[in-house]
Amino acid sequence: MSDVSTPWETWIGVTALVVALAALVVALVVYLQARRAGRRMGRPARRYGTGLGPREQEAPGERLVAFVANPSKPGVPELRDTLVDACLDAALPEPLWFETTVEDPGRGQARDALAAGADVVVAVGGDGTVRAVAETMAGTGRAMGILPRGTGNLLARNLDISTTSVEDALATVISGHDRHVDVGRLRVDEYADEPGPDSEGARDVDHLFLVIAGLGFDAAMVADADPTLKSKVGWMAYFFAGVRHLHGRRSRMRIEIDDAPAVDTRVRSLMVGNCGLLPGGITLIPDAVIDDGRLDVVAIDARAGLVGWAQVFGEVVMQGIGVSSGDLPRAGRIDTSPARRVRIEVEAGAGEHVQVDGDLLGRARRVTAWVEPGTLVVRSA
């Protein structure tokens, strides 16, 4: 079927898209109201140094906290005194403070924090800072905390860490419980061009991701998001960038999951998820659990322009509230399969943009992704 919509298809597509977006707003409102109600009923007194999580905590004692902060994020440099005072108020030693740079977004600073004896290393910034700190923390057995100050704050949302209240997020750092979570790894086996700016300038690098890696539409959307718009409207900047790619071409890919035979398919986007909650309370992968020892491969297609995308958006909304679309004929689809390892090959040509947790790696023709179960310890609510 041609990807070029007729006027009739466009009119139907716009109508369907409006309906899908309206359903999304309703679902989001219901979700947020329920979440706020749960917090009002179940939230304990907010005091640093007292247990906030459901598990029994060790006494703060001499646990040393180190903050790895991205000073380019608004308000982050001004947080230093607040964070130091909060640790001292909780009878903790005076915390360490490291700032990231353009050349080192957090890996080296996290290594320095560990070398200095830090028991908890806290990423203060956006998803890029969290991913960089996690690269160093994975496999160490020591905990990573998160003070989300970015646009998407994807891992924080999936761990129910507050993205709006520094006080609540800091309470989780000081008094939360330690949770072992899985990490994903992605290697670009064949680039279509030179590696991207976030790939450390090397071709043989295993890139950690905590939420979602992807090729196709989602990575192109990340590539085109306007930095100025991101600073003004946050994660909605990705939505505006995505609109420009709704009529983009479908990609032919070969997908090999674990030991199953390879499958050839055409998709708009191919994602590998470690957890499934996106900004706005949107659940893209309902079955994804961050500590289940597996990844979830998600193939998204839209074969009839706006009509297909409207159906995809509608399906995301419905599955997020537990409603199945069943076996109805579909112009757009979301197919999900569990995996421990997946190999993806894009048909010869320009390849596809590839991203890990919003960091672009360049255009790729072949990638491999796999899970490392329980590798990272994260301080959670």
TrEMBL record:
InterPro entries: ATP-NAD_kinase_N (IPR017438), cNMP-bd_dom (IPR000595), Diacylglycerol_kinase_cat_dom (IPR001206), Lipid_Phosphate_FormReg (IPR050187), NAD/diacylglycerol_kinase_sf (IPR016064), YegS/DAGK_C (IPR045540)
Residues of the Cyclic nucleotide-binding domain: 289-334
Group of enzyme by EC: transferase
Gene3D superfamilies: 2.60.200.40, Probable inorganic polyphosphate/atp-NAD kinase, domain 1 (3.40.50.10330)
EC number(s) stated in the UniProt entry for this protein: 2.7.1.107
Gene Ontology BP terms: phospholipid biosynthetic process
Annotated TM spans: 12-32
Residues annotated as domain DAGKc: 60-190
Homology family: Belongs to the diacylglycerol/lipid kinase family.
Name of the protein in question: Diacylglycerol kinase (ATP)
Organism in which the protein naturally occurs: Luteimicrobium xylanilyticum
Gene: dagK
